[in-house]
Amino acid sequence: MQLLDGKKISNDIKNEITVEVQKMKDRGEKVPHLAAVLVGNNGASLTYVGSKVRSCEQIGFESTLLHLEDTITEEELLVKIDELNQNDEIDGFIVQLPLPKHIDEQKILMAIDSSKDVDGFHPENFGKMAMDMESFIPATPYGILELIERYKIETSGKHTVVIGRSHIVGRPMSILLSRKGYPGDSTVTLTHSRTENIAEITRSADIIISALGVPNFLKGDMVKEGVVVIDVGITRVPDATAEKGYVITGDVDFEEVSKKASFITPVPGGVGPMTIAMLLKNTLLARERRMKKQ
Ligand SMILES: Nc1nc(=O)c2c([nH]1)NC[C@@H]1CN(c3ccc(C(=O)N[C@@H](CCC(=O)O)C(=O)O)cc3)C=[N+]21
Questions:
Q1: For residue 60, what are the domain limits?
Q2: Same structural domain for residues 167 and 74?
Q3: What is the Å distance from ligand 1's center to 274 Cα?
């Protein structure tokens, strides 16, 4: 069994981006600028947005954090988004999800200028991705593609089983791995909460990507020998003995499944850090594309 070391690969990618930023500086060009919009004080969201901003500083990007009260109205938030759309200093921005219940998430995502949508959540980017056109690929699926490539995992003709049909991970992942060329050409099965006999399906999988959010869902008897397992789950499970009062737990029973897997991601240290690295990569791409247009 070999670990798919997201921590290490994400650091490699950050170092590669740092080199590109330095070249931009040397040429006297503007460096990439990422803005993050955070509404309210959700604990996990604060952690993630914090590490996005810190990563920007590490690699030499400019960053702006727009931290808004959870009492903000949808209309007021739309005004903030339009300001970011218009602001020429900002190359890309994200609106951290989930949003408070009184705000229509779809309406907000639709308001983001697609050329600054470094999360790749706007339907224009989703459609372009599905049609192999230039777009922003959502950071988590993009990070999984990078892991597959950098560990040279064969995908052509393989049976890939995706668990979970979210717009952010499962659905785009199923499209990306069935595209022509590498890392694609997979025969993809997209499974979800209504899937019957899921263990029968996962047992026939060469590659399993689980983005369900149910701790320790995938057990040893649900996979075949030699399977490649990518665990996107990151649930905070309360644990009084843990330093922070919780442990981050994946969808995969690592203890059992790692005994049969050829490759497997750890949680934490797998897909999570890759998500952040690919958000930075998308921001670099946004800057480069904007510069070309000028
Ligand atoms: N607009 C938007 N874009 C997102 O990309 C987005 C979002 N909303 N909402 C929430 C999810 C989740 N997400 C993670 C990013 C990093 C880690 C990460 O670095 N995880 C570490 C552990 C971090 C910890 O201590 O919790 C790891 O797995 O090793 C996890 C999850 C981005 N998301």
A1: 27-113
A2: no
A3: 9
The verdict on 99 and 194 lying in the same domain is no
* pLDDT, mean over the chain: 97
Asked if residue 5 has its Cβ within 6 Å of ligand 1, the reply is no
Contact 284/65 with Cβ under 8 angstroms? no
Express each pLDDT in 102-140 by its tens digit. Answer: 999 999 999 999 999 999 999 999 999 999 999 999 999
**Predicted pLDDT at 162:** 98
Classify residue 75 as exposed, middle or buried by CB count within 10 Å of its CB (0-12, 13-18, 19+). exposed
Q: Pseudo-torsion of CA 142, 64, 27, 118, nearest 10°?
A: 20
Residues 148 and 97 in one domain: no
| pLDDT cut 70: percent of the chain above it | 100
For a substitution probing ligand 1, which of 9, 14, 118, 234 has the most ligand atoms within 8 Å of its CB?
Answer: 234
SS3 126: helix
Residues 6+ apart with CB under 8 A from 123: 109, 110
Handedness of CA 229, 94, 50, 79 (dihedral sign): negative
pTM over the 0.95 mark: yes
Q: Which residue has the tokens 């040279």?
A: 152
How far is Cα 164 from Cα 212, in angstroms, rounded to an integer?
5
pLDDT at res. 205: 99
Residues with Cβ within 8 Å of 15's Cβ and at least 6 positions away in sequence, in order, are: none
